[in-house]
Amino acid sequence: MGFFRKPAAAEAGPRIIGIAGTGRGAGATHLCVWSANGLRSGLGRKTAVLEWNRHGDFDRFGRVCIGMEPRNLRYSIQGVDFYPQSGEEILAACIRGPYQEILLDCGVLGEEGDGGLLYCRSVYLLTSFSEWQEGAFGSRNHWEERARQNGWHCLAAFGSEESRRNWNRRRKPFVDRIPFSADAFSVSAEDIRWIRNMLDQDFSR
Amino acid sequence: MRETEICIKIPVYKRQQYSKRGGEPIQGTVLFGKYRVIRVLGYGRDSTVYLAWHQELEEYRAVKRVSRASGDAGQFKKEALLLKRLSHPAIPRVYDLEEDPEYYYLIEEFLEGSSFCDLVEERGHLSQEAVIRCGIQICSLVHYLHSAEEVPILYLDLQPRNLLLCHGQVKLLDFNHAAPLREANASPFRYGTPGYCAPEQMGKGALGVFTDVYQIGKVLAFLLTGSAGEDSLRRIPGSLGRLIRTCTCTDSLSRLPSADAVRQELEDIGKKAGLEVLGERPLIAAFAAWRPGAGATHLAIGLCACLNHRGIPCLYEERNESGDAWAMAGQLKAEADSYGICTLAGIPVRPRYGQAVRLKPHGFPAVVRDYGTHVREAAQDGAADLFVLVYGGRWWDWRPEGLNPQPLAMKKLVLCREAVNAGSGRIRRPEGTQHWRWYRVPEFSDPFLPDRKARELYRLLWQEMPGTGKQVPEKERGGSLWDFFGNLRQQKPDRGSSA
Q1: Taking the complete model, does pTM exceed 0.95, yes or no?
Q2: Nearest CA to B71 among B104, B93, B49?
Q3: Regarding the domain delimited by A15-203, which CATH topology (the fold level of the hierarchy) does it fall under?
Q4: B-contacting residues of A 134-173, CB under 8 Å?
Q5: Contacts of A190 in chain B (CB under 8 A)
Q6: What is the pLDDT of residues B44-71, one digit of tens each?
Q7: Does domain B114-272 sit in CATH 3.40.470.10?
Q8: Within 13 Å of residue B215, how many CA atoms lie on the same side as its CB?
Q9: Which residues of B fall below an 8 Å CB-CB distance to A?
Q10: CATH dotted code for B283-489
Q11: What is the pLDDT of residues B235-259, one digit of tens each?
């Protein structure tokens, strides 16, 4: 049908999105997998997720979910392509490939993986307001300055809403709440709307 | 005896969303530590209704806010207590009452859908069949209120803005003025919306179930003509017009005695007009074509548009990877609801979702699945009642190997585009397709607005669905198409020239 036009983004090359955490357990890998599933299954975008850290999470859930052989370069779950232990070469191949969205799981900010953030047009920084991590917010943190300077979008999945509100009243950058999802491999209509709005806002800036 | 004061409700007007004036909650504000405000849903006389997200339970809520200064607090609490006593899927449940130094808040279930007012504004008035279907539901809802307790609860503000339509289901909102019969008559204040309130609401006459019957008549007139004025009431022809005029008599004794009586009248009119009674199980048609551009999507959307126009809620389900549904939604700036359904030009459309997506099950009585070029998948769709193969203008596209095996219970149809028989005249079905039904498709440019010929085709097609009507006789199904393939076989040695 002639009047159906594909979105312009499909022709403009893939969007490269970086996701990092301010510490271990902040939920960066979870957000990466969850938003990749939302993009692929909810919005029909061809999506690749690249593990840009040495945590080995992708190897582990590749083995658990599909019985993947160790040292496999790529596997696919629910239409999303996962690249464990990847680097510049794989990123270059993905950019040339069929993907519309490329997500980099950069692990913890300050570790070796955060060099990958340089390739990203949009960066999401995960932090946590859980009580046992609140000590980290007492003094000025290294990531606050970097997030402000680079215009990164700060998000939190865990911790109390009260702590987040207090933070937003007194400190910068502003931290948004992610809808909590226990299962990273399942998304609801609300999740899809949230993911789309988040990406649309960031890429229209 | 106290004087009765007549208050005419100010028509709701639209203000800019996310207004920051007057300290109103804006997007992102969290009320009572758990309700994150998303947007304004509407404004009432003294109230504002917000859409909010319950952050702990991860559900939408409608939060109605009334100023303490408005002096309407007593009425507000009455509404909450009344809603607490009602339990109906089309009436919002009340969850909580909250307050702060300036406002009272009523936390209600959020019901999705578009108001009849917005629908008529966007798409024009509804067809007679759609009005009858919606009217039956409105009457059932009002009858529920009248019979839920010993004393009838009068709604007293039935108007298109308070009625929502969501996937064919009518829902009732805003119980601000609803009250049990005795309380309604004892109240010193009377409210009403201009154009919809009954004569007794504007004077000192007694209120009763007949007041709601009057408003049902006015709403039906609005749906049918786009206006609830006296002129439009007089213009409505036929038995539906007579029913509406009976409901809206100035003399309350001349009206029909109850909402249930109006519903029965509507059902009788529907039966005489050949309105199908839809069963519990959805009727499913699977569309496919052998090549892109043959018209499967065009014809599938056309069938949906036609059924929705007739008041049969029909969902278009994208079952191919074209991405057309998301592209259309993007162009029309339509968002998916919690069922994952976008409404595009009045047609509910569910884009293709992957395996990771978990959606609420919908309740559409009719579903059209568009498989695109996945003919084999469509032919093997075990849930489908009807398999519709769209056959374009090329005789060499016919590939019977893709059609086996198919569920025996499924009815099989072929829709032939006009171009197929343009040159050849006589048409015959290929071997092995004697049990298939063939239809000729007229050309129509806009699938969202099928023309008269297309609507006639879709009427016949719908009758092929089990339980929807009589079987279509042979002579109505496109005559000379049958011999098409016979002719083509004869022409095969010389097919280059025949093309």
Answers
A1: no
A2: B104
A3: Rossmann fold (3.40.50)
A4: 161-162, 165
A5: 58, 338
A6: 777 888 989 887 787 889 999 888 877 6
A7: no
A8: 26
A9: 30, 33-34, 36, 55, 58, 297-298, 321-324, 326-328, 330-331, 335-340, 351-360, 447
A10: 3.40.50
A11: 888 899 999 999 999 998 999 999 9
